[in-house]
Amino acid sequence: METQEKKTREINLAELFWQILLKWRSIICFGVLFAVLLCGMKYMMDTKSYHASQNIDTKQLENQLTEEERQQVAQANNLSARIKEYETYLETSAWMQIDPYKKPMVELQYYVDSEYTFNYTEESKNDYTSSLMTLYYNYIMSGEMSQNVIDEAKLSISQADLSELWGISQVGNSISIKIICPEKDKMEMVADSIKTHLSSKEAEFQDIGPHKLKLLSESQNVVVDNNLIDRKNTISNNISTMSAQLKSLKTGMNGQQLLLLQSEENEEEDSEKAGFNLKFMILGGFFGAFLVCFWVVCKVLFTARLQSSDEIRTLYNLRLLGEIAVPSQKNHFLSGIDGMLLALKNRKKKKLSMEQQIKIIAANIALSCRQQKIDCIYMTGSEYENVNADILNLLKKELSSQNVKLKEGGSIYYDTESLKQSSEIGNIVLVEQKELSIYDEISHELNLAKEQNTYILGAIVLV
């Protein structure tokens, strides 16, 4: 007599994805929990470090050092502060973020044409041309002009940053304006904003003396800035040189000097008490979500229970008579989201009510019985005693209407009376449940049925 062989179970990746997605509540809860835990631990460690640095008596340490040793500590502090200033400047300055080999540049050339003339035969007025040039120069360099350009071109830099990118030169009655544009696609907007505001000032400055402000040339180019290359190299070299000097100073210091230096550096870094770190909060959230996903994957990989109705076919070579979707008895929070996810998961399947599913299953059983001239069946399963009684009653009622005689009982592997009745009837229909029926118990039932020469019509799975 052949026994039921245990086959290797294949993992359905699509099904695994939906199982993870349907655990969205756990993912959110564990994400929030670990975000709070990790952020709280970081906060406690920072606070502990802060208080430890505050407990060091720097005055006492200074008194234990010679004047030369104190000067070495002061020199190291100055070097450390200058290194941090340079590094901060490199990281935050808009000018330093520009690619020196692809520098977007807006250039405007203006000429102030005053109507002042000098007449030897008549009483002459004072020449107002230099006053006009000074007014235009001061306005262009003013915070009003730069702020207007930032607002109108919607640049993502501050007024202080723009001052580094703004250059102006004056020769005679001409004014040259050069602007490094941090956003290449906004060069046209920057140029239009400058022209608009200078045009409005031309009308205002007519009170000084009649004149015309002429735009001689306008260009928008991408150029190489050798000055910026040199500036970046100079700052990087300064950082390297000072870092080497600082390292050399620390090498020659004794333990008290290093402790004093460390305490003073901590005072600067901890000038504000430790706060919640957003980076650790995000990291904790991702870790919590990962744990839930990992748990679901492990549960699917190493489970001993039936994971899908298709496994009845693939693992046991049984006919699947049908599956019955059991409505959830629990009223979960935001259950509407579960409904939407399930609808999306089953979008390619026609939705049937539980009554329709039972009717189809009963019809399948009835047709099989007629084809094989079976007048009575025995319904059992490895977890038959845990099957929903209402569903069983509906199924028995429908089978009765199809003129199929039915007897039922518990698992034939554990229930002796059930084994006797199933052997007498000789025809079995198994009723199993997803995530409740155990693989080995199903195998034991099938082997026992074959040993008793009992015919198995197929299996019904409750999902």
Which helices and strands appear, and what pairs or packs with what?
Blueprint: H1 13-21, H2 24-54, H3 58-63, H4 67-92, E1 103-114, H5 129-141, H6 143-153, H7 159-165, E2 166-171, E3 174-180, H8 187-204, E4 211-223, H9 226-251, H10 255-269, H11 278-302, H12 311-316, E5 320-324, H13 335-345, H14 354-371, E6 376-380, H15 389-401, E7 405-408, H16 416-425, E8 427-433, H17 439-451, E9 455-462
Parallel strand pairs: 5-9, 6-7, 6-8, 8-9
Antiparallel strand pairs: 1-3, 1-4, 2-3
Helix pairs in contact: 2-11, 4-9, 4-10, 6-8, 14-15
Q: Let me know the average pLDDT.
A: 83
Strand content: 5-15%
* Helix vs. strand class: alpha/beta
Tell how many strands the DSSP assignment holds.
9
**Overall body shape:** elongated
Question: How many DSSP H or I helices?
Answer: 17
Radius of gyration: 42 Å
Compressed to H and E, one letter per element, the order equals: HHHHEHHHEEHEHHHHEHHEHEHEHE
Q: Give the biggest sheet.
A: 5 strands, parallel
Q: Which parts are unreliable, with pLDDT below 50 for 5 consecutive residues or more?
A: none
Helix content: 55-70%
Cα end-to-end separation: 32 Å
Strand order of the largest sheet: 5-9-8-6-7
